[in-house]
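Query form — protein LysR substrate-binding domain-containing protein

QUESTION: What is the three-dimensional structure of this chain?
INPUT:
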Amino acid sequence: MEFSMFASLPLTALRAFESASRLLSFKAAAEELSVTPTAISHQIRSLEDWLGVALFERLPRQVRLTEGGERLFRSLHGALLEVAQSVDTLRPQRSGSSLTLSTTAAFAALWLVPRLGRFYAQHPNINLRLDTHCEVIDLHQDASVDLVLRYSLDDYPNLYGQCLFDESFGVYGSPEQVALAARRTPTLISVRWHNSKLYAHGWEAWCARSGEHWLHQHPVSREYDEEHYALQAAIAGQGLVLASNILVSESVSSGLLVPYKGEIQVDGAGYSALCVPGRERHPPVRAFFTWLHEEALLSGLTRRSQPSAASVEQAAKIS
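ANSWER: The C-alpha cells for LysR substrate-binding domain-containing protein are given below.
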C-alpha cells in the first residue's frame, strides 16, 4: 500500500511547488530548476488539479501561498531537506563542507569573529560564510542559510534553538575617561537602535539606577548606527558608552575599555542560535552548535533558561 502511494506522488510537480513556494516566484523557481516559467506554472497547476485545492493566489506581479499551500510547503520543505541531508551523509566525504551563518554585523565583529580561530582549529575542513545583511530572513524559505544568531526579546517556537546568553547594559570607557567621569559630566555615547522596543531610553534607565544626574546637566552626546562604531569611539577616548556586556567583553578583557560603576546594569534581551528543525543534525551545523555552547560556557554569560528544541517560520535579524 505504501509503495503504491509513493509511486503515485507527482515528484516533479512537488519539486517545482517547493521551489516556487520558497522563492514566492514562478520565474525564480524556473531559473533555479533550469526550466521555463511556463513549465513551472504547468507543474503547479497539475499539482493543484491532482490535489483538488488551490495552492497559490495569483496576484498582479506576484504569487502568494494559500492556507493549504502554506501547510503543504511546511511539510514538503522539511521532508526534502531531511532527504537532502541524508543523501549528503552517504556520499564519500569531501575535503571540506560549507556552513552559512546569518547574524548582525555588530555581533559578528565584536563577539563572533574574535573567537572563530578556535572553531577553525577544531574544524579546519568547514568553510564558514558570514551573512551580515540586515534583511529579514525566513529560514523556512531561504535554504541557503544554515543557521542564524539572533538578538531578540521574542521566542521562536517553530525553530530548533539553542539559547546562548542573556544580555545586560552597562557604562564603559577608556581608563582615562572613566577616571574623569568621577569629576565632571562625561560625553555620552549611545547607539541608534533599529528596533527601539529592544532598548528604549537606555541612558535614562541606567542613570536612574546609578544615581547619576548627567542627563539633567545637558551633556554632549554622540550617537552611532552600529555598536562597533560606538565602542571604537569610546576606545578612542571620546566619552562613555552605554553598551552590551556581551559585545563589549573583548574590549574589556584586553583593557581597552573599563566599566564605570560596573555593578549597575540594566537588562537587555538574549542571544540564540536557530535553524530549521532537522538541520541541526547536518554535521557542520551540529559542530557549530557544539562550539557555540562551549564558547558561551567559557564566556561565563550563559543564559538562565535551558536550550529549547523547537522548530520558526520567521526570524528577524535585529540589531
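ADDITIONAL NOTE: The domain at 2-90 is CATH 1.10.10.10 (Arc Repressor Mutant, subunit A).
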